[in-house]
Amino acid sequence: MLKSFDIYNQNNILKIIVALNLLLVGTGSLLYTNRLITKLETREQQYVQLYAKTIAYLVDPNHFDSGDLTFVTSEILEANRTVPAIYVDPNGQISKPLNIDFPDNLTDNEKEQYLRQRIVDMRKRHPPLVVEVGNGERGLVYYDNSNLLRQMTYFPYVLLAILTALGVLAYLSFSSSRRAEQNRVWVGLAKETAHQLGTPMSSLMAWVEYMRSDPAQFDESITDEIEKDVRRLETITARFSSIGSIPTLKDEDITDVVEQFTGYLAKRISTKVKMSMTSQLPHGETVKINKLLFEWVIENICKNAVDAMKGVGELRLNILALPNHEIAIDITDTGKGIPKASMQKVFTPGFSTKKRGWGLGLTLAKRIVEEYHNGRLFVKSSEVGKGTTFRIVLNADKEKKAVEPQPSVKEA
Protein backbone atom coordinates (compact mmCIF):
# COMPACT_ATOMS: atom_id res chain seq x y z
CA MET A 1 0.00 0.00 0.00
CA LEU A 2 1.40 3.39 -0.97
CA LYS A 3 2.01 5.92 1.75
CA SER A 4 0.51 9.36 1.39
CA PHE A 5 2.84 11.94 -0.11
CA ASP A 6 2.87 15.44 1.36
CA ILE A 7 3.51 17.67 -1.64
CA TYR A 8 4.10 20.77 0.48
CA ASN A 9 6.65 19.31 2.88
CA GLN A 10 8.43 17.47 0.06
CA ASN A 11 8.57 20.33 -2.43
CA ASN A 12 12.37 20.58 -2.21
CA ILE A 13 12.71 16.89 -3.08
CA LEU A 14 10.35 17.38 -6.03
CA LYS A 15 12.41 20.30 -7.28
CA ILE A 16 15.57 18.19 -7.12
CA ILE A 17 13.87 15.35 -9.00
CA VAL A 18 12.63 17.73 -11.71
CA ALA A 19 16.08 19.33 -11.97
CA LEU A 20 17.82 15.94 -12.28
CA ASN A 21 15.38 14.81 -14.97
CA LEU A 22 15.91 17.99 -16.93
CA LEU A 23 19.67 17.57 -16.56
CA LEU A 24 19.50 13.98 -17.82
CA VAL A 25 17.33 14.96 -20.79
CA GLY A 26 19.61 17.84 -21.65
CA THR A 27 22.79 15.77 -21.33
CA GLY A 28 21.34 12.92 -23.38
CA SER A 29 20.20 15.32 -26.09
CA LEU A 30 23.61 17.00 -26.15
CA LEU A 31 25.49 13.70 -26.50
CA TYR A 32 23.13 12.40 -29.17
CA THR A 33 23.19 15.51 -31.30
CA ASN A 34 26.98 15.77 -30.96
CA ARG A 35 27.19 12.24 -32.33
CA LEU A 36 25.05 13.25 -35.28
CA ILE A 37 27.19 16.31 -35.86
CA THR A 38 30.36 14.18 -35.89
CA LYS A 39 28.86 11.84 -38.49
CA LEU A 40 27.66 14.73 -40.63
CA GLU A 41 31.04 16.44 -40.40
CA THR A 42 32.77 13.23 -41.52
CA ARG A 43 30.43 12.92 -44.49
CA GLU A 44 31.02 16.48 -45.53
CA GLN A 45 34.75 15.97 -45.28
CA GLN A 46 34.38 13.00 -47.63
CA TYR A 47 32.57 15.26 -50.06
CA VAL A 48 35.45 17.71 -50.00
CA GLN A 49 37.96 14.91 -50.43
CA LEU A 50 36.04 13.77 -53.50
CA TYR A 51 36.12 17.33 -54.76
CA ALA A 52 39.87 17.50 -54.20
CA LYS A 53 40.50 14.20 -56.00
CA THR A 54 38.40 15.37 -58.91
CA ILE A 55 40.46 18.52 -59.27
CA ALA A 56 43.64 16.44 -59.15
CA TYR A 57 42.25 14.22 -61.88
CA LEU A 58 41.46 17.19 -64.09
CA VAL A 59 44.72 19.05 -63.49
CA ASP A 60 47.20 16.15 -63.83
CA PRO A 61 47.66 15.25 -67.56
CA ASN A 62 48.75 11.77 -66.57
CA HIS A 63 45.19 11.07 -65.47
CA PHE A 64 43.67 11.89 -68.87
CA ASP A 65 42.70 9.26 -71.29
CA SER A 66 40.36 9.14 -74.20
CA GLY A 67 37.34 8.64 -71.92
CA ASP A 68 34.45 11.09 -71.60
CA LEU A 69 34.93 13.49 -68.68
CA THR A 70 31.31 14.68 -68.66
CA PHE A 71 30.53 12.49 -65.64
CA VAL A 72 33.40 14.06 -63.66
CA THR A 73 32.46 17.62 -64.45
CA SER A 74 28.68 17.38 -64.30
CA GLU A 75 28.13 15.00 -61.42
CA ILE A 76 31.16 14.65 -59.16
CA LEU A 77 32.15 18.31 -59.09
CA GLU A 78 28.55 19.45 -58.71
CA ALA A 79 27.58 16.76 -56.21
CA ASN A 80 28.51 19.14 -53.41
CA ARG A 81 25.93 21.90 -53.32
CA THR A 82 26.18 22.81 -49.64
CA VAL A 83 29.79 22.82 -48.40
CA PRO A 84 31.71 26.06 -49.12
CA ALA A 85 35.14 25.24 -50.62
CA ILE A 86 37.98 27.17 -52.28
CA TYR A 87 40.86 25.67 -54.27
CA VAL A 88 44.24 27.41 -54.24
CA ASP A 89 46.65 26.17 -56.90
CA PRO A 90 50.40 25.63 -56.36
CA ASN A 91 51.05 29.22 -57.46
CA GLY A 92 48.76 30.58 -54.75
CA GLN A 93 46.05 31.58 -57.19
CA ILE A 94 42.43 31.07 -56.20
CA SER A 95 40.28 29.06 -58.58
CA LYS A 96 37.12 27.06 -58.62
CA PRO A 97 35.39 28.53 -55.50
CA LEU A 98 32.40 26.39 -54.64
CA ASN A 99 29.16 27.36 -52.82
CA ILE A 100 30.50 30.80 -51.92
CA ASP A 101 27.89 33.55 -51.64
CA PHE A 102 29.41 36.92 -52.54
CA PRO A 103 27.96 40.19 -51.30
CA ASP A 104 26.27 42.23 -53.98
CA ASN A 105 28.06 44.69 -56.26
CA LEU A 106 31.64 43.48 -55.67
CA THR A 107 34.35 44.07 -58.26
CA ASP A 108 36.75 41.31 -59.28
CA ASN A 109 39.44 42.66 -56.95
CA GLU A 110 36.96 42.89 -54.08
CA LYS A 111 35.87 39.32 -54.74
CA GLU A 112 39.50 38.25 -54.60
CA GLN A 113 39.93 39.98 -51.21
CA TYR A 114 36.67 38.47 -49.98
CA LEU A 115 37.85 34.96 -50.90
CA ARG A 116 41.21 35.54 -49.20
CA GLN A 117 39.42 36.52 -46.03
CA ARG A 118 37.17 33.46 -46.28
CA ILE A 119 40.28 31.29 -46.60
CA VAL A 120 41.65 32.77 -43.35
CA ASP A 121 38.38 32.03 -41.60
CA MET A 122 38.19 28.52 -43.04
CA ARG A 123 41.74 27.71 -41.94
CA LYS A 124 40.79 28.54 -38.34
CA ARG A 125 38.04 25.89 -38.39
CA HIS A 126 39.48 23.15 -40.60
CA PRO A 127 42.97 22.26 -41.87
CA PRO A 128 43.12 22.45 -45.69
CA LEU A 129 43.12 19.32 -47.81
CA VAL A 130 46.21 18.74 -49.94
CA VAL A 131 45.73 18.17 -53.70
CA GLU A 132 48.58 16.35 -55.50
CA VAL A 133 48.68 17.85 -59.01
CA GLY A 134 51.81 16.08 -60.26
CA ASN A 135 55.49 16.94 -60.66
CA GLY A 136 55.70 17.27 -56.89
CA GLU A 137 53.37 20.27 -56.83
CA ARG A 138 50.47 20.60 -54.46
CA GLY A 139 47.33 22.66 -54.28
CA LEU A 140 45.15 23.26 -51.24
CA VAL A 141 41.40 23.01 -50.76
CA TYR A 142 39.94 25.09 -47.93
CA TYR A 143 36.44 24.38 -46.78
CA ASP A 144 33.89 25.44 -44.15
CA ASN A 145 30.86 23.94 -42.47
CA SER A 146 27.65 23.89 -44.42
CA ASN A 147 24.57 25.74 -43.19
CA LEU A 148 23.11 22.43 -42.06
CA LEU A 149 26.14 21.57 -40.00
CA ARG A 150 26.16 25.03 -38.40
CA GLN A 151 22.51 24.62 -37.51
CA MET A 152 23.23 21.22 -36.01
CA THR A 153 26.12 22.70 -34.03
CA TYR A 154 23.86 25.24 -32.37
CA PHE A 155 20.94 22.83 -31.98
CA PRO A 156 22.06 21.30 -28.62
CA TYR A 157 22.37 24.73 -27.06
CA VAL A 158 18.98 25.75 -28.39
CA LEU A 159 17.57 22.52 -26.99
CA LEU A 160 19.14 23.16 -23.60
CA ALA A 161 17.74 26.68 -23.60
CA ILE A 162 14.28 25.29 -24.36
CA LEU A 163 14.58 22.69 -21.62
CA THR A 164 15.73 25.36 -19.19
CA ALA A 165 12.74 27.52 -20.08
CA LEU A 166 10.44 24.52 -19.64
CA GLY A 167 12.04 23.80 -16.29
CA VAL A 168 11.50 27.37 -15.14
CA LEU A 169 7.90 27.27 -16.32
CA ALA A 170 7.37 23.97 -14.55
CA TYR A 171 8.82 25.39 -11.35
CA LEU A 172 6.71 28.54 -11.56
CA SER A 173 3.63 26.47 -12.30
CA PHE A 174 4.31 24.21 -9.35
CA SER A 175 4.96 27.14 -7.03
CA SER A 176 1.88 28.99 -8.25
CA SER A 177 -0.27 25.90 -7.83
CA ARG A 178 1.09 25.32 -4.34
CA ARG A 179 0.46 28.94 -3.32
CA ALA A 180 -3.06 28.81 -4.77
CA GLU A 181 -3.80 25.64 -2.83
CA GLN A 182 -2.39 27.16 0.36
CA ASN A 183 -4.51 30.25 -0.21
CA ARG A 184 -7.62 28.11 -0.53
CA VAL A 185 -6.72 26.32 2.70
CA TRP A 186 -6.20 29.59 4.60
CA VAL A 187 -9.37 31.14 3.21
CA GLY A 188 -11.38 28.07 4.15
CA LEU A 189 -9.83 28.00 7.61
CA ALA A 190 -10.54 31.71 8.15
CA LYS A 191 -14.18 31.45 7.10
CA GLU A 192 -14.72 28.31 9.16
CA THR A 193 -13.19 30.06 12.20
CA ALA A 194 -15.54 33.01 11.72
CA HIS A 195 -18.48 30.63 11.46
CA GLN A 196 -17.50 28.75 14.63
CA LEU A 197 -17.13 32.00 16.60
CA GLY A 198 -20.67 33.07 15.75
CA THR A 199 -22.49 30.80 18.24
CA PRO A 200 -20.46 31.56 21.41
CA MET A 201 -20.58 35.29 20.63
CA SER A 202 -24.35 35.23 20.45
CA SER A 203 -24.36 33.52 23.81
CA LEU A 204 -21.97 36.07 25.30
CA MET A 205 -24.14 38.96 24.07
CA ALA A 206 -27.11 37.34 25.77
CA TRP A 207 -25.13 37.17 29.03
CA VAL A 208 -24.22 40.84 28.67
CA GLU A 209 -27.89 41.73 28.32
CA TYR A 210 -28.67 39.58 31.35
CA MET A 211 -26.02 41.36 33.44
CA ARG A 212 -27.35 44.76 32.38
CA SER A 213 -30.82 43.74 33.52
CA ASP A 214 -29.53 43.39 37.10
CA PRO A 215 -27.19 46.37 37.74
CA ALA A 216 -27.44 45.84 41.49
CA GLN A 217 -25.69 42.48 41.25
CA PHE A 218 -23.32 43.17 38.32
CA ASP A 219 -21.10 46.24 38.27
CA GLU A 220 -21.92 48.34 35.19
CA SER A 221 -18.26 49.12 34.45
CA ILE A 222 -17.46 45.40 34.33
CA THR A 223 -20.41 44.79 32.04
CA ASP A 224 -19.20 47.60 29.75
CA GLU A 225 -15.74 46.06 29.48
CA ILE A 226 -17.16 42.63 28.74
CA GLU A 227 -19.33 44.17 26.04
CA LYS A 228 -16.27 45.86 24.52
CA ASP A 229 -14.48 42.55 24.35
CA VAL A 230 -17.51 40.89 22.78
CA ARG A 231 -17.63 43.69 20.20
CA ARG A 232 -13.96 43.05 19.66
CA LEU A 233 -14.69 39.40 18.97
CA GLU A 234 -17.32 40.48 16.47
CA THR A 235 -14.70 42.61 14.73
CA ILE A 236 -12.28 39.67 14.58
CA THR A 237 -15.04 37.45 13.20
CA ALA A 238 -15.84 40.02 10.53
CA ARG A 239 -12.15 40.17 9.59
CA PHE A 240 -11.90 36.42 9.18
CA SER A 241 -15.11 36.41 7.17
CA SER A 242 -13.70 38.98 4.75
CA ILE A 243 -10.61 36.89 3.91
CA GLY A 244 -10.84 35.78 0.30
CA SER A 245 -13.49 38.39 -0.57
CA ILE A 246 -13.01 41.76 -2.26
CA PRO A 247 -13.36 44.36 0.51
CA THR A 248 -15.22 47.64 0.17
CA LEU A 249 -12.91 50.66 0.37
CA LYS A 250 -14.15 53.99 1.69
CA ASP A 251 -12.59 57.42 2.14
CA GLU A 252 -11.39 57.52 5.73
CA ASP A 253 -9.46 60.11 7.70
CA ILE A 254 -6.32 58.05 8.09
CA THR A 255 -5.07 60.02 11.09
CA ASP A 256 -8.33 59.49 12.99
CA VAL A 257 -8.42 55.77 12.13
CA VAL A 258 -4.87 55.14 13.36
CA GLU A 259 -5.31 57.38 16.40
CA GLN A 260 -8.54 55.73 17.54
CA PHE A 261 -7.20 52.23 17.09
CA THR A 262 -3.87 52.87 18.80
CA GLY A 263 -5.82 54.36 21.70
CA TYR A 264 -7.79 51.12 21.95
CA LEU A 265 -4.69 48.97 21.53
CA ALA A 266 -2.61 50.85 24.11
CA LYS A 267 -4.94 49.68 26.88
CA ARG A 268 -4.52 46.06 25.89
CA ILE A 269 -0.75 45.68 25.57
CA SER A 270 1.93 45.70 28.24
CA THR A 271 1.89 48.74 30.49
CA LYS A 272 5.69 48.82 30.17
CA VAL A 273 5.43 49.73 26.49
CA LYS A 274 5.26 53.47 25.86
CA MET A 275 3.10 53.97 22.78
CA SER A 276 2.89 57.28 20.89
CA MET A 277 1.52 58.55 17.57
CA THR A 278 2.59 61.52 15.44
CA SER A 279 0.84 62.81 12.32
CA GLN A 280 2.28 65.32 9.86
CA LEU A 281 -0.67 65.17 7.46
CA PRO A 282 -3.02 68.03 6.61
CA HIS A 283 -6.22 68.00 8.61
CA GLY A 284 -8.87 65.75 7.10
CA GLU A 285 -6.50 63.91 4.71
CA THR A 286 -8.39 60.86 3.49
CA VAL A 287 -7.35 57.52 2.05
CA LYS A 288 -9.50 54.80 0.52
CA ILE A 289 -9.25 51.89 2.95
CA ASN A 290 -11.30 49.17 4.51
CA LYS A 291 -11.22 50.32 8.12
CA LEU A 292 -11.85 46.88 9.57
CA LEU A 293 -8.99 45.26 7.69
CA PHE A 294 -6.60 48.17 7.98
CA GLU A 295 -6.92 48.18 11.75
CA TRP A 296 -5.96 44.51 11.59
CA VAL A 297 -2.75 45.52 9.78
CA ILE A 298 -1.86 48.05 12.47
CA GLU A 299 -2.67 45.53 15.18
CA ASN A 300 -0.52 42.77 13.68
CA ILE A 301 2.50 45.02 13.21
CA CYS A 302 2.17 46.58 16.67
CA LYS A 303 1.74 43.23 18.42
CA ASN A 304 4.73 41.90 16.52
CA ALA A 305 6.70 44.93 17.74
CA VAL A 306 5.61 44.38 21.35
CA ASP A 307 6.74 40.76 21.12
CA ALA A 308 10.08 41.90 19.71
CA MET A 309 10.52 44.20 22.73
CA LYS A 310 9.40 41.42 25.13
CA GLY A 311 6.77 43.76 26.55
CA VAL A 312 9.21 46.52 27.52
CA GLY A 313 10.18 49.47 25.32
CA GLU A 314 8.87 52.25 23.11
CA LEU A 315 6.48 51.98 20.17
CA ARG A 316 6.13 54.99 17.89
CA LEU A 317 3.75 55.53 14.96
CA ASN A 318 4.42 58.39 12.54
CA ILE A 319 2.13 59.37 9.64
CA LEU A 320 3.66 61.55 6.93
CA ALA A 321 3.07 62.63 3.34
CA LEU A 322 5.25 61.37 0.51
CA PRO A 323 5.66 62.64 -3.07
CA ASN A 324 3.29 61.42 -5.80
CA HIS A 325 0.19 61.61 -3.60
CA GLU A 326 1.33 58.88 -1.22
CA ILE A 327 1.01 58.56 2.55
CA ALA A 328 3.41 56.62 4.76
CA ILE A 329 2.82 55.16 8.19
CA ASP A 330 6.03 54.27 10.02
CA ILE A 331 5.80 51.92 12.98
CA THR A 332 9.02 51.88 14.99
CA ASP A 333 9.91 49.72 17.98
CA THR A 334 12.96 49.49 20.23
CA GLY A 335 13.08 45.71 20.08
CA LYS A 336 15.77 43.20 19.19
CA GLY A 337 15.81 44.06 15.46
CA ILE A 338 15.86 41.73 12.48
CA PRO A 339 19.09 40.02 11.32
CA LYS A 340 19.97 40.56 7.66
CA ALA A 341 19.64 36.83 7.02
CA SER A 342 15.99 36.96 8.11
CA MET A 343 15.07 40.26 6.44
CA GLN A 344 13.60 38.57 3.36
CA LYS A 345 11.67 36.01 5.40
CA VAL A 346 9.66 38.18 7.77
CA PHE A 347 6.62 38.17 5.47
CA THR A 348 6.88 34.47 4.60
CA PRO A 349 3.97 32.35 5.93
CA GLY A 350 5.05 30.29 8.90
CA PHE A 351 8.21 32.30 9.64
CA SER A 352 8.39 33.26 13.31
CA THR A 353 11.13 33.86 15.86
CA LYS A 354 8.75 33.09 18.71
CA LYS A 355 8.33 29.69 20.31
CA ARG A 356 4.58 30.11 20.01
CA GLY A 357 2.74 31.51 17.03
CA TRP A 358 1.91 30.55 13.48
CA GLY A 359 3.95 33.24 11.76
CA LEU A 360 0.94 34.59 9.85
CA GLY A 361 0.47 38.08 11.30
CA LEU A 362 2.89 39.96 9.04
CA THR A 363 1.94 37.78 6.07
CA LEU A 364 -1.71 38.74 6.44
CA ALA A 365 -0.78 42.39 6.99
CA LYS A 366 1.26 42.49 3.78
CA ARG A 367 -1.49 40.81 1.80
CA ILE A 368 -4.15 43.20 3.11
CA VAL A 369 -2.02 46.26 2.29
CA GLU A 370 -0.76 45.17 -1.13
CA GLU A 371 -3.60 43.09 -2.55
CA TYR A 372 -6.62 44.85 -1.05
CA HIS A 373 -5.36 48.44 -0.74
CA ASN A 374 -2.88 48.59 -3.65
CA GLY A 375 -0.21 49.81 -1.23
CA ARG A 376 3.15 48.57 0.02
CA LEU A 377 4.38 47.13 3.31
CA PHE A 378 8.08 46.58 3.90
CA VAL A 379 10.86 46.80 6.46
CA LYS A 380 12.16 50.35 6.15
CA SER A 381 15.10 49.81 8.50
CA SER A 382 16.25 47.45 11.20
CA GLU A 383 19.30 47.18 13.44
CA VAL A 384 19.97 44.23 15.67
CA GLY A 385 19.68 45.23 19.32
CA LYS A 386 18.17 48.66 18.54
CA GLY A 387 14.84 48.13 16.80
CA THR A 388 12.89 47.97 13.57
CA THR A 389 10.75 50.30 11.47
CA PHE A 390 7.97 48.93 9.28
CA ARG A 391 6.56 51.28 6.63
CA ILE A 392 3.07 51.19 5.13
CA VAL A 393 2.61 53.23 1.94
CA LEU A 394 -0.89 54.10 0.67
CA ASN A 395 -2.26 56.27 -2.12
CA ALA A 396 -3.84 59.48 -0.88
CA ASP A 397 -7.03 61.01 -2.27
CA LYS A 398 -5.69 62.88 -5.34
CA GLU A 399 -8.84 64.94 -5.74
CA LYS A 400 -8.58 66.46 -2.30
CA LYS A 401 -7.12 69.95 -2.32
CA ALA A 402 -3.87 70.44 -0.50
CA VAL A 403 -4.08 72.03 2.92
CA GLU A 404 -1.34 73.26 5.20
CA PRO A 405 -0.04 70.41 7.38
CA GLN A 406 -1.21 70.45 10.99
CA PRO A 407 1.17 68.23 12.93
CA SER A 408 -0.33 66.49 15.88
CA VAL A 409 1.26 64.33 18.52
CA LYS A 410 -0.63 61.95 20.72
CA GLU A 411 0.75 59.71 23.39
CA ALA A 412 -1.36 56.65 24.01
From TrEMBL:
Keywords: ATP-binding, Kinase, Membrane, Nucleotide-binding, Phosphoprotein, Transferase, Transmembrane, Transmembrane helix, Two-component regulatory system. It is an enzyme of class 2 (transferase). SUPFAM superfamilies: ATPase domain of HSP90 chaperone/DNA topoisomerase II/histidine kinase. The keyword Coiled coil does not apply. Its EC number is 2.7.13.3. One of its GO terms (molecular function) is ATP binding. Residues 192-398 form the Histidine kinase domain. It catalyses: ATP + protein L-histidine = ADP + protein N-phospho-L-histidine. The chain crosses the membrane at residues 12-32, 154-174. This is histidine kinase.
